[in-house]
Design a protein that fits this description.
Elements: E1 6-9, H1 15-26, E2 30-35, H2 39-51, E3 56-60, H3 69-79, E4 84-89, H4 104-128, E5 135-140, H5 153-172, E6 177-184, H6 195-202, H7 213-225, E7 233-236
Parallel strand pairs: 1-2, 1-4, 2-3, 4-5, 5-6, 6-7
Length: about 250
């Protein structure tokens, strides 16, 4: 039982972060739901967990603003009685740009949310980890790091930086904290993409299907519960990263 340990998941009101939160609660973690603007979705997820008699709280925080991260983490720490034993950096900024359109603003916006905020949260997590707990950090990357294309340039660069942070912290924070990553593949239709197109493009992977959301969640759960892994990245993409793509598959 892990009922005295809490898991902080950024971006956990919707999509992948929400599914990670639901699975963690089922595994008897206390869950700290983080959201920025998705207050209604966060409230609904929180109510769902409480109706199932699971320990859960929700904390609002803008990861775009580094100055507010200390206060956000302090609130999470207070609501969990100082028992945060794991951190999943799932929140991500994902906006399209390329070599021609990238600007200092688009670059900084992606770096703030996708790299600097996780860095600050990892530092706070390590400083406040209770002495009796083994810590665990899982960062969410992207399968395209294995075989990149020019689309979403600032986003992709930020995920490379987060992958590097994973490697550095796995070494620095051992033996008390494990640091790993999961790199999801093509799981959900891109904005504006039809389900038919999504299904057709999903068949281009070596396994002839898209990665499943639940498989990515299972990978995160595996890393949270295995005490012998650190500095590793699990790529969940049905082999899509083996293919050389000239643009994102969702385009």
């Amino acid at each position: 039982m892990q009922s005295d340990k809490w898991l902080l998941i950024t971006g956990s009101a919707v999509r992948l972060g929400r599914e990670i939160a639901l699975a963690a609660a089922q595994a008897d973690w206390g869950v700290i739901l983080h959201y920025r603007g998705s207050s209604q979705e966060a409230s609904e997820t929180l109510q769902l967990l409480r109706d199932a008699n699971r320990k859960a709280v929700a904390v609002q925080g803008d990861l775009q603003n580094p100055a507010g991260i200390d206060a956000f983490f302090s609130e999470a720490l207070s609501l969990s009685n100082g028992r945060i034993g794991a951190l999943v950096n799932s929140a991500s900024r994902f906006e399209w740009d390329d070599l021609d359109s990238a600007s200092l603003q688009t670059f900084q916006d992606h770096m703030n949310v996708n790299v600097y905020a996780p860095l600050l949260l990892c530092r706070l997590f390590a400083r406040h980890l209770p002495n009796d707990l083994m810590g665990n950090i899982v960062n969410i990357l992207d399968f395209k790091l294995s075989n990149p294309n020019p689309d979403h340039l600032s986003y992709t660069l930020s995920k490379y930086a987060l992958a590097g942070l994973t490697q550095i912290l796995a070494r620095q924070l051992a033996p008390g904290i494990q640091v790993n990553a999961v790199a999801p593949g093509y799981m959900l239709p891109a904005p504006g993409q039809s389900d038919e197109e999504f299904q057709e493009k999903s068949k281009r992977t070596p396994l002839k299907r898209s990665a499943k959301l639940e498989d990515v969640v299972d990978a995160v759960s595996f890393l949270l519960n295995n005490q012998s892994i650190t500095g590793q990245t699990l790529t969940i993409d049905c082999g899509l990263s083996f293919n050389s793509l000239h643009q994102d598959i969702g385009r």
